[in-house]
Structure formats: structure tokens, C-alpha cells
Amino acid sequence: MTTLYSNEELLNTLRRHAQGESTLGRRTYEQRRHEHEPSAHLYTHRFGSWSEAVAAAGLTSTTQPMHLQDATTKWGEPQMLAALRDCRSDTGYLTVRGYEAWRLNPVHPRPNVPPATSIRARFGKWSAAAAQTE
Question: Where does the source fall among the domains of life (predicted)?
């Protein structure tokens, strides 16, 4: 059964899990949330990014730790878009699952293309990245 949440319900859940603190990190939310509550991924999907969801809830977004800041910049935007175009050209479609299958194909692996998670982190959501390749 899929539960539908209004934006206000989602934001109230964030505020409750912030427990009076001014911010709420994604990992902290995932540790505090109950099984029946929305996943952090839903917030990213609905609001464009975790930071945007936190800001919409009236909380302060957290800054990515220095040692992780390069994690989303290993590949530049041109490299990401080129990988997406190559995938679409090779497969005829561009879904997250299809992209990861193409990228990790055991017969023809592509170790020098970014994972879908990096692309999502850069563009906020998969559809935004895919739209730039059309």
C-alpha cells in the first residue's frame, strides 16, 4: 500500500524529527524516522533536494562536511551529461535503473562514468539531468 503525503504533512514530519534543533541532516532523519514515515528520498523527489525540503520546513540546511565535498564533484557536469547521452544512444532510453544497468554491465563495464547518485546530487533529480540531454 502506498501512502500519499501532502507537502505540509512531510514538512511537519521534518519539524517533529528535528526535535527542537534548528537543522536536520538527512542521515539523522533516516535514523529517527519510523518505518511508516516517508523516506528521505521522497523529500528529495518532492522538493528537489534534501536542503530544499529542510528549508521549506523552516529549518537550516546543513553544510556538507569538507571531506565529502569532492564526492559530488569528481565528475563535472559535461562528463555527466555525456554519460547520459551515451546511455541513451546505446540503449534508447534513460531511466535510473537502465542507466545503472548500462554503467555496470559486466560484459562492457564503464568505470569512468558517474553513478546515478552523483548525477542526482548534481542536478537535484534525475529528470532534470535527463532533460538536459534531449
Answer: Bacteria
